[in-house]
Automatic annotation (TrEMBL):
Keywords: Membrane, Transmembrane, Transmembrane helix. Residues 127-501 form the Amino acid transporter transmembrane domain. It holds the Pfam family Aa_trans. It is found in: Membrane. One of its GO terms (molecular function) is L-amino acid transmembrane transporter activity. This is Amino acid transporter transmembrane domain-containing protein. It is a multi-pass membrane protein. Its main location: membrane. GO terms for cellular component: membrane. InterPro entries: AA_transpt_TM. Belongs to the amino acid/polyamine transporter 2 family. PANTHER family: AMINO ACID TRANSPORTER, AMINO ACID TRANSPORTER TRANSMEMBRANE DOMAIN-CONTAINING PROTEIN.
Length: 587
């Protein structure tokens, strides 16, 4: 499943280009207030106005040298360099002015700095290069421990073909997001999140739907990690591969991780957690190598496979096509692991928002997706070849050697905790900013009252994630459900849907139409369906393809949700899964 998240996103309420929460060290330590008095999601700002200022910003981007990557930036370590240069003076001066004004006036939206100073400060702190983005995407997605199980469900042929197809379309979805970002993001109206693109193309209702799915996904991701870590700890506490009855209660072990999240989740900024994310990817690499080495020279974990899937000991069997004992719904859940594997598009907008040259995003994305595809295919095919029908959903938990199993579980626990903290941090900020602040008028997280509110919100969030984990302790079906309900939408369904609306509005603009900065008005010669039909006909082939892409993704999502729910029901019916139980799903 998707690995540790690389934390370059910010949900503190400010522009991630100029906010400390922008993880991985790309951000600045204080917030810079925008010079204009503007609502963040102002319905009076037209599509043409967004495009007008985006064109100006992109023209300025061309003057930035692309030849600035070095070994540290490509490795994602430049932000961790203790000898790095200090922030530019203009940034420091703007920060000081902001803090002084903010402390004396409750109105943070008042005119504080000039437009020129704001743009200079904004660009000074957009430091991410395409090499760093490569590392961020890889850190976010890399964690192929469910890919071997996907091959167990689908067989060699369908598994390899579908992983390839979904990898290609995940890259294409990222390409569409990149094109929309270039066309709508500007220094005056910066894009910060996925929901911001939805707002500028379709309006507030679609933005709310996108934000809800993002919140839902992050919450369930934390729940999945709680279950996974609970399973790892239960194997370690068993004192041997056949002694699980002497181990600790599974539900208690899951609760331990929930308590850890409640305590460590009090860290509000992602800056420090970003350094841990860099470390977590290397832990995953160690576990990948160790798992492949051990499974090649040992027997499968027959006891764990029997407990999890009721598979009796015997010779290892692999198949070219779908195995006879796996129902169609089980094959679909296996397919959803491919979707889960490429589930990083939700954060692509946040990554682009921190780049000094968003033009170069495609380089980092292409390299990252290609690298991830190779690693996932190699690992999945290798482990499945040696473990066959005994392959577990978390591959290293299928190691029969207790010593190596414990080592892998220990590393997995560490990287899993880091991932849970990052997912939880972002998920809480999404809920806080889009629900608590907008609807219930909670104070900003930058204020003292907001910091106190954060202390109370964190335990509630982790408690809900713990309840989800304890009620549905099924990593395969639960991750399959989230892949179908949420991840598939961000990577495959939303990109063509959003680009369809984006391209129609863009193509519908006629000669003499557009935004006039002198008057602040947008000129349109017509409105309504006539305008949309004209925009559709201008790129009829691509628009038709995107409709088909959108409908195909939506159909796959519905099928995936249905299959995951059927799998959950079947697991409860056979007694393989029990809620809030002391019995571990694996040994």
């Amino acid at each position: 499943m998707a690995g540790t998240m690389g934390g370059a996103m910010n949900m503190d309420g400010g522009d991630p280009r100029i906010n400390s929460s922008a993880g991985m060290g790309f951000g600045v330590a204080s917030e810079v207030t925008r010079p204009a008095v503007q609502k963040l999601h102002d319905p009076s700002v037209t599509f043409e106005e967004y495009m007008h200022y985006a064109a100006i910003t992109r023209a300025d981007d061309r003057n930035i040298s692309p030849h600035t990557d070095n070994a540290l930036s490509v490795a994602g370590l430049k932000s961790m360099n203790p000898f790095a240069k200090k922030r530019e003076p203009v940034v420091e001066s703007v920060i000081q002015m902001n803090e002084k004004t903010a402390s004396s006036s409750p109105d943070r939206t008042s005119y504080i700095i000039s437009e020129e100073e704001y743009i200079r400060a904004s660009r000074a702190v957009r430091t991410a290069t395409w090499g760093a983005v490569f590392f961020l995407i890889t850190t976010d997605i890399l964690g192929p421990f469910s890919t071997a199980w996907a091959f167990r469900q689908m067989g060699y042929g369908p598994g390899a073909v579908l992983y390839t197809i979904f990898g290609v379309f995940a890259g294409y979805g990222g390409f569409l997001l990149w094109k929309m970002f270039l066309g709508l993001d500007s220094d005056k109206y910066p894009l910060r999140t996925y929901g911001d693109i939805a707002f500028r193309v379709y309006g507030q209702t679609v933005r709310i739907g996108v934000n809800f799915l993002q919140t839902f996904q992050l919450l369930f991701n934390v729940g999945i990690i709680i279950v996974s870590n609970g399973q790892s700890l239960s194997q370690m506490a068993a004192k041997g591969p056949n002694l699980n009855q002497n181990g600790a209660c599974f539900i208690v072990l899951c609760f331990v991780w929930a308590i850890a999240g409640m305590l460590l989740g009090q860290i509000r900024t992602l800056a420090r957690l970003g350094h841990l994310a860099n470390f977590a990817i290397w832990l995953n690499v160690i576990v990948i190598i160790a798992t492949m080495a051990v499974v090649a020279h040992s027997t499968p974990n027959y006891v764990a496979a029997n407990t999890a899937y009721m598979v009796n000991p015997g010779p290892v069997v692999t198949t070219a096509g779908p195995p006879d004992g796996v129902a169609f719904q089980g094959q679909v859940v296996g397919l959803m692991q491919a979707v889960y594997s490429y589930g990083g598009a939700m954060l692509f907008v946040e990554f682009m928002a921190e780049m000094k040259r968003p033009w170069d995003f495609w380089k980092g994305m292409l390299c990252a997706q290609s690298f991830i595809y190779v690693v996932y295919m190699l690992f999945g095919l290798f482990v499945y070849s040696f473990q066959g029908q005994f392959t577990l959903i978390i591959a290293y938990q299928g190691i029969s050697s207790y010593a190596w199993q414990t080592v892998a579980n220990a590393f997995g626990l560490t990287s899993g905790l880091i991932a849970a903290l990052l997912y939880g941090n972002i998920g809480i900020k999404v809920v806080y900013n889009n629900v608590l602040m907008e609807i219930f008028k909670f104070p900003s997280l930058g204020t003292k009252a907001g910091k106190l509110a954060w202390i109370g919100v964190v335990p509630v969030y982790w408690a809900v994630a713990f309840i989800i984990a304890s009620a549905i302790p099924q990593v395969a079906n639960l991750s399959g459900f989230i892949a179908a309900a949420c991840i598939l939408q961000f990577s495959y369904t939303f990109p063509p849907f959003l680009h369809f609306g984006f391209q129609i509005q863009k193509a519908a603009i006629q000669s003499g139409e557009g935004f006039d900065p002198a008057t602040g008005q947008t000129v349109r010669h017509d409105n309504g369906m006539k305008r949309y039909i004209r925009g559709f006909k201008m790129n009829i082939l691509w628009n038709t393809f995107h409709i088909i892409f959108f409908l195909g993704s939506l159909t796959t999502a519905i099928l995936g949700i249905y299959s995951a729910i059927v799998g959950m029901i079947a697991s409860y019916a056979t007694g393989a899964t029990t809620t809030f139980s002391c019995s571990s799903p694996v040994l």
